[in-house]
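Page 47, continued from p. 46.
Same chain as before, 398 aa.
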Amino acid sequence: MRRDLAPGELVLEDAWRSFPARGDRARTLKEVVTSLTGRRPPELPPTQALAGVSLGVGAGETVGIVGRNGAGKTSTLRVLAGIIPLHKGFAGCGGRVATLIELGAGFGREFTGRENIRLNAALHGMGREEIDARIDEMIAFSELGHFIDSPIKTYSSGMLVRLGFSVAAHLDADVLLIDEVLAVGDEAFQRKCLGQIAARIEQGATVVLVSHAPGTIERACRRVVVLDAGRVVFDGPTAEGLRLYHRLLGLEEAEPPSAGPRSGAVSLREAVIQDGEGRSRQIFSPGERMRVVMDLAAREGAPDVEVVIEVKQASGGSVFRTSATTATGAGQLSFEVPQLALLGGDYDIAISLREPGDTTPHVDRLLTFSVADAEGAEGIADLRGTWTFVGPAVEVGR
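Result:
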């Protein structure tokens, strides 16, 4: 069924899509043996990703899609983008569509970031002259620095987000389909991406944003669609939709983040990550110097304050924790790592201010940084050393 849609208009009508529960299984030795003996594993029913989803988005609208894992959010974007076909129903997008659905999609791992910008932009329909005119702007937006000329196989997921969004944000598209990727970048980069999205909205672009981060949806979208088990259970104002989403997750309303110690005597005005030259950075190589600089404000006669820094993996696992006590409260406090002994990945720095003896968990600021992969090493800690082999002893003079 074909239909003429206005540029920026999106339509889903009675959309159905399922996937095999097992997917494409690899042929293992066990499967070969069981097939010879006639015994096969039981077939599982297919997973219903979309079950009669109907959705209309007008040109220039900004819509957020939320839901529990497996609710059908990514499948909705994929059918809108034409990546996967429907088994039943209609899906259509009017005009030029830019997608940022999977990290690294359309990238060549052996190519550099610069080469991949050119490749990805060309795949989205940009001509050579247009790419040449915009590539410097895209590179500057990504903030990848000298890593832009490194193969992307050394990039963390956060670095891939920067690279992918730097292309998608500079396409003259009528529709932007964005899936979760903004959750990987650091807070400053997220703000810049949201600013770029806002600029595209002002220019009339339609945006559909999938995210598990309610704050991101709330800042960018006036309308939210809640999916559950492949069906639309809510379509309306963002605040009301997010409340329903929290109820589906079984969560109560979270308390607002703390602004400092319970007494309010000391507060964290600003916190930044810097390199050894004092420049703000979010991307490092293993072994580089890194510094966390905190600007503290305090009222007169403020008590001692303990400042706690904890480095965590993006998955939430703790990597390192340290603390210091400052007696004066006001001033600039810094923590420096002379050689960053971490391997490739995305990491969070949670900063907490509290009075000594206060064990109530809270976070006053969350910073994010990425570390590029190192050749010949895997894991979290950078413990690379020297390999030495000594063969059989040989008598002198023989």
